[in-house]
Amino acid sequence: MKKLMNVRASILTLGAVLLCAAMSFAQADSPKMTFNHAVAFAVSPPLRELANLPARHEYGFPMEDPRPMPNFQLGRNSTYNVDPVEQDSPGPPANISVGLSIPGLMKDYGQTRPDTNAAVGDTQLVEWENTQYAVYNKSTGALEAGPIDGSMLWQSLGGPCYENNDGDVIAQFDKAHHRWLMVQNDFNLPGDQPPYYACVAVSTSDDATGTYYLYQFPEINFPDYPKWGIWPTGYFQTQDNFDINIGFLGAYVCAYNSAKLIVGDPSAEQICFQLTVNDYALLPADIDSPTPPPANQDEFFIGAYDVDQTNNHLYLYSMHPDFANPSQSTFTGSGLADPITVPAYTPFCFGAGDACVPQQGTPTLLAGLGNYLMYRFAYWDDGPPANVGTHATRVPAQHWYVSHVITASGGQAGMRWYEFRAPISTATISGVTLYQSGTFAPDANYRWMGSIAQDKMGDIALGYSLASTTVWDSIAVTGRVPSDPLGQMEAETIVAPGSGSQGGNQNWGDYSSMAIDADGCTFWYAQEYYVTPASVDWQTQLTSFKFSGCQ
After folding, report:
1. CA 160, 164, 166, 171: dihedral to nearest 10 degrees?
2. Does residue 3 sit within a domain?
3. Does the pLDDT of residue 360 top 80, yes or no?
4. Average pLDDT over all residues of the chain
5. Predicted confidence (pLDDT) at residue 392 exceeds the cutoff of 70
6. Residue 505: per-residue pLDDT
7. What domain range is 56 assigned to?
8. Is 168 exposed, middle or buried (0-12, 13-18, 19+ CB in 10 A)?
9. Is residue 27 assigned to a domain?
């Protein structure tokens, strides 16, 4: 997540602007659309060859972040909401077995945070953090290529995608087409002046070390905190748009014509909608199941901010892109038009971007990212009844999962998680209901920066960062099976015990990722932790595990 330097004054007043904004839902539900084609195209050499090229040590962005976060103060106060779904005990012994634990990418070029994420393909695992990526064999954990400087992927494309390796990266695997999707935005740092671009790479095969189609798409404003989701109707991107003179403009949502991207068509299109200043940090649904969504199912998005300050709503959005007739594309939910009620919660840290996570061995507090729903908004379609396993509690449905950090009853950070459902038929936003939710806070330790997904049996896995004044910065996972009581997780498993903490810098990672293998059982969690106490010396780890009942 980058920090735009010259919007400080306007962003500091954003909380007041949001509280006073008078929303017209009729106008909010018809946001402005833009339509563009790719402005540049190329084909990369095999990635395995890029791994042999010398590193470009001059690229990247500075250690310190010059732009403050939008100063959201919605619902922040000095009292706690009573959390009706808090789980304050560990739960029964976990039904999971840990497989591979692969040492991942490490700190480079003074980066304060890695923005760790990974995707799992047919035979490989790809990890990407802000300035480098690597390919691993998912069966053995062996390194197949890398670490590779992130900018080298765009060498054939040239221009700003190659010259400005500005981070906020996402790696995805399109299971339906067996293609890798590698994306990052060009922020034009350090000057932060337009133009800006979205840089999109799609592999030409299922081999992550092979060649890629490279695309450069225009961005009309500073495109912060982008997230991506794969859906049958396109590849979808969300981000927060800023104007260098005005400040925060609102969420920005784009659909990319994946049918053209995966075949190397230079005319690939992008359809985007600019939302209101009340819409912030949306996540796009990202399909995990081998069964596709029902025919004509629009892409859904989710956001987290309550203008009524009760902090008991999330907000749903939907998009229907029409690449043949772009003017017929539609977007619903802009301006917080479609709330969905959830159990009340207290936002963590009572403010945006505040550092409240304590650590062992240092007075430095870490940023808990209380502003954001955490990547990913994972989707699963059960398909026919025979696919849902033998659990009597399971009825075939569409499922969406998301998590975020909140304040638990003891003042510590706890992981709030949700499962939303809809029948297996084309659903609108109004057809989505909250099936279950919980806040995992079984002790006084702090848990934050989580990611959640499900397997083919309906088992749910949740991973997160773990720390306190008595626990080094570590990686942990928990989970549940369908027969567990609703809203309850089983006991925690620490998959990477820390032996250090981050002193002197409050910036922690912006996201982690929980991915599910095509076998429908194996989860892969990518996250950062600390091996030795240091100012900035993070390490990442890729951990596989699965539930004992999933075969």
Report:
1. 60
2. no
3. yes
4. 88
5. no
6. 86
7. 8-96+106-118+129-547
8. buried
9. yes
